[in-house]
Write a structure and sequence with these properties.
Mean pLDDT: 77
Strand content: under 5%
Largest sheet: none
Order of helices and strands: HHH
Helix content: over 70%
Distance between the termini: 43 Å
Length: about 60
């Protein structure tokens, strides 16, 4: 397995985890769990601007 394939698999795994967490019955837990990768992930996902934009969007709902 090449590094590119490994990175892609890792990102797909994180995406699957986020999608699964969004289905939690408790909305607060679902949002917090789904947003976790934005704060604690490799550089492509740990984007402070994306994290702030997601929280801002959720607060306006």
């Amino acid at each position: 397995m090449t590094d590119v394939e490994r990175r892609r698999g890792n990102l797909l795994s994180r995406l699957t985890s986020v999608l699964r967490s969004a289905l939690y019955p408790d909305p607060d837990i679902a949002v917090r769990t789904a947003l976790y990768p934005l704060a604690f992930s490799p550089a492509p996902l740990a984007d402070p601007a994306a994290h702030a934009a997601a929280l801002s969007h959720l607060r306006t709902r």
